[in-house]
């Protein structure tokens, strides 16, 4: 083995593990594993198709096993795994799909060692420091560095890693989140089954495996995680005399929740712990005894949970396993039909396309650029776009964290900067950085560049421009929902790349920022001409305010933060801190938008910032409001199957809809609504050029202003409309995730209405008819809206 970090692989036999397979792969990528050798033993839940997809990406060497390849002696599947180990790997860990190869730093190791013999009363204090660990505090390449030290001794051929058995944490049913997040209670270190170990070996020095835990070596010696000679318990191969958790261990999630354990038995899930050979389904009595034996929850432990952020980030670069899942009660198929189904699953996710690529001349210190996906005639579609897999080699640049990143540009002025997922040091062409990511773009031109951080500063080197033909892809994947902590739902990925905004990947250049500044200046000048007060209200993203519940860690500066930093403070209201102070009441659990209570707080800030009333006076206007608890599914809950619902507070003491005098009923952009309230607190008209978050503000704006005119425009301005309405207050409302583009002041409401009517679907027409409210021409003329009502067909408001 060279002086560089060892190349680490993981080998396993799996059966029907689709529910946790993506997490298992992502976790091991996060801790430094480079390749997987996996034998599938007759999976029927989609696991094989998913592994087949990963094998095409070069992540997995897939071994297909048959029923006849199992024996009661030497595990022949391990012989097949051993034979399939690529020669490029220095060491390979042989583990199971419910086992996680966990690196331990000195602090966590010392906590675990000192916990031996402790009582349950002080269990909450053990391993708790790791609960607060962040991504940035986790050691880079810590596992491979530690393994490099162990295997730096040329006589060491195999390493035995002991288990830490984790119980159900009292969970009866499968919950949301990662396995390493949901199960944080383990057995005491002296639990006898923790003496079972799994082996990390130099494949070339193994003749065979005596069982799935112990390798028979051709030469060299076996050591434990302290580097000392392995001592067996009563000469039992695979069982050590003592438990040793030093530098690393195997976290064994043997049972998970009751539901998952029972379902695992129904699916004939292989288990390798009860006997020395892999076994099939347990009987009911055996299953109950097994669960009782391994459901050990004596000590809290958050060491693995600290890796959740990195695991989520690694998952972003993998195809979604849910797309391959087959319900467990699907009709049984013959083997050839399973293989055919797997092939069809692969084919359906591959698009045969015509793609042009233009490679830029490489500039120092770049020595090589290699793209493996997408290919000239094929690409792989994921939930979030097009899969890109590539590597770049550099010379003379330190490969510290984030020193080499990949910049992707598909929209003018907007750059998405991705970190690497793996680094190889000391290659023939210099150090090589690997990227595997999902481009949130379905067609068009994508520019790729390397961003290098050197002592001289940041350098951008163009690599390649990809052009995907507009007709290359048959369909768009709809935006989906991410399940966060405690069941909170968030946008996964939409046309604004909301997830990448949250991760801090999206950056706006100076031209986009300048466009925003120009927008603000022109809008201020326009409202000054009509003698109106103006304020832009930016609804913060749910991800920003409720980040503690989000499954992915908050990244660096987001586009909305870039924009508001450049705008005049008196021009905008961005109530992020105000909403954070409200806690869970600020946003719906199952919806992207703020709650009515959150909108009420924002409305009070609007009135105060415009100087229309003092803050304590404004708050007193709504102090008597009464709310009731209702269950809503929201725009995120409806994206899941089954639909998710959650309780929220809805205003019960006032209904603004009774004051609605006009509604053209159009869906989203182009909708126009007017409220009249003679009992309003202010004898003024308020024009709202807003977005979806404005709807929650209506119950409060309608009570403040005598007239409220709303146009769904997401901040785009129709100058003619502003002049015609002649409002005293103009509110421009948009959502933070929309701010990758500046709104327009040349926007035409008339054009939008005509386009909507021309292309409206039958369902939208029915919805528009149901909610539309007409007004006579005298009223429309007094509001300044006659021109835009005349765009509608004469029969628009009639059945």
TrEMBL record:
Compartment(s) of residence: Membrane; Periplasm
One Pfam family named in its UniProt record: Glyco_tranf_2_4
Pathway entry: Glycan biosynthesis; alginate biosynthesis
Membrane topology: Single-pass membrane protein
This protein's UniProt keywords: Alginate biosynthesis, Membrane, Periplasm, Signal, Transferase, Transmembrane, Transmembrane helix
Keyword match NADP: no
Primary localization class, coarse: membrane
Domain of life: Bacteria
AlgX/AlgJ SGNH hydrolase-like domain mapped to chain residues: 482-644
Segments for region (Disordered): 108-137
Coiled coil location: none
Biased amino acid composition, Low complexity: 110-137
Name recorded for this polypeptide: Glycosyltransferase family 2 protein
The organism of origin for this protein: Halomonas casei
Upper lineage: Bacteria, Pseudomonadati, Pseudomonadota, Gammaproteobacteria, Oceanospirillales
């Amino acid at each position: 083995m060279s002086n560089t970090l060892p190349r680490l692989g993981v080998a396993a036999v799996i059966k029907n593990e689709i529910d946790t397979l993506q997490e298992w792969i992502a976790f091991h990528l996060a801790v430094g594993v480079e390749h997987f050798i996996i034998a599938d033993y007759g999976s029927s839940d989609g696991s094989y198709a998913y592994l087949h997809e990963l094998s095409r990406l070069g992540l997995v060497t897939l071994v297909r096993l048959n029923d006849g390849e199992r024996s009661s002696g030497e595990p022949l599947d391990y012989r097949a795994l051993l034979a399939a180990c690529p020669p490029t790997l220095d060491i390979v860990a042989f583990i199971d799909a419910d086992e996680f190869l966990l690196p331990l730093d000195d602090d966590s190791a010392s906590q675990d060692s000192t916990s031996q013999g402790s009582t349950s009363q002080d269990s909450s204090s053990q391993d708790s420091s790791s609960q607060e660990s962040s991504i940035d505090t986790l050691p880079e390449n810590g596992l491979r560095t530690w393994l490099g030290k162990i295997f730096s001794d040329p006589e060491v051929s195999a390493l035995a890693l002991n288990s830490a058995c984790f119980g159900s944490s009292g969970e009866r049913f499968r919950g949301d989140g990662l396995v390493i997040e949901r199960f944080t209670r383990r057995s005491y270190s002296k639990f006898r089954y923790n003496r079972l170990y799994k082996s990390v070996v130099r494949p070339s020095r193994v003749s065979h495996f005596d069982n799935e835990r112990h390798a028979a070596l051709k030469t060299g010696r076996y050591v434990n995680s302290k580097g000392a000679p392995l001592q067996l318990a009563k000469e039992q191969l695979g069982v050590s005399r003592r438990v040793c958790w030093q530098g690393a261990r195997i976290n064994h999630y043997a049972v998970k929740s009751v539901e998952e354990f029972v379902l695992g038995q129904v699916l004939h899930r292989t288990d390798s712990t009860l006997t020395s050979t892999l076994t099939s389904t347990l009987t009911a009595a055996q299953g109950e005894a097994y669960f009782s034996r391994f459901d050990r929850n004596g000590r809290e432990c958050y060491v693995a949970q600290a890796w959740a952020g990195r695991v989520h980030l690694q998952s972003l670069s993998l195809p979604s396993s849910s797309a391959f899942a087959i319900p467990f009660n699907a009709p049984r198929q013959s083997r050839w039909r399973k293989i055919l189904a797997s092939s069809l699953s692969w084919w359906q996710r591959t698009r045969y396309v015509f793609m042009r690529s233009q490679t830029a001349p490489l500039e120092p210190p770049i020595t090589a650029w290699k793209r493996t996906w997408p290919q000239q005639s094929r690409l792989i579609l994921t939930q979030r776009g097009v899969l890109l897999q590539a590597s770049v080699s550099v010379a003379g640049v330190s490969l510290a964290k984030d020193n080499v990143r990949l910049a992707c540009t598909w929209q003018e002025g907007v750059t998405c900067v991705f970190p690497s997922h793996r680094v190889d040091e000391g290659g023939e062409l210099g150090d090589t950085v690997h990227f595997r990511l999902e481009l949130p773009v379905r067609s068009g031109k994508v520019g790729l560049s390397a961003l290098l951080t050197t002592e001289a500063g940041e350098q951008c080197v163009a690599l390649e421009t990809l052009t995907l033909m507009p007709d290359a892809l048959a369909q768009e994947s709809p935006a989906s929902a991410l399940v966060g902590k405690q069941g909170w739902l968030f946008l996964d990925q939409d046309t604004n790349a909301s997830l990448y905004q949250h991760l801090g990947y999206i950056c706006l250049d100076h031209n986009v920022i300048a466009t925003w500044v120009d927008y603000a200046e022109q809008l201020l000048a326009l409202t000054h001409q009509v003698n109106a007060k103006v304020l832009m209200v930016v609804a913060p993203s749910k991800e920003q305010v409720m980040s503690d519940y989000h499954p992915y860690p908050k990244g660096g500066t987001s586009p909305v933060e870039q924009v508001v930093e450049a705008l005049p403070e008196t021009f905008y209201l961005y109530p992020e801190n105000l909403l954070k102070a409200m806690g869970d009441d600020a946003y719906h659990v199952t919806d992207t938008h703020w709650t009515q209570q959150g909108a009420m707080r924002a409305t009070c800030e609007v009135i105060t910032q415009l100087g229309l009333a003092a803050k304590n006076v404004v708050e007193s206007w709504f102090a008597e409001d009464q709310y009731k608890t209702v269950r809503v599914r929201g725009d995120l809950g409806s994206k899941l199957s089954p639909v998710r619902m959650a309780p929220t507070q809805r205003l019960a003491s006032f209904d603004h809809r009774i004051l609605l005098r006009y509604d053209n009923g159009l869906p989203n952009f182009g909708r126009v609504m007017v409220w009249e309230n003679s009992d309003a607190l202010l004898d003024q008209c308020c024009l709202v050029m807003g977005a979806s978050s404005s709807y929650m503000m209506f119950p409060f704006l309608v009570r403040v202003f005598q007239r409220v005119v709303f146009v769904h425009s997401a901040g785009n301005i129709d100058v003619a409309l502003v002049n015609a309405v002649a409002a005293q207050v103009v509110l421009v409302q948009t959502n933070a995730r929309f701010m990758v583009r500046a709104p327009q002041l040349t926007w035409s409401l008339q054009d939008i209405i005509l386009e909507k009517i021309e292309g409206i679907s039958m369902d939208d027409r029915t919805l528009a008819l149901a909610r539309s409210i007409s007004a006579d021409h005298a009223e429309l003329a007094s509001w300044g809206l006659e021109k835009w009502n005349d765009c509608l067909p004469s029969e628009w408001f009639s059945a």
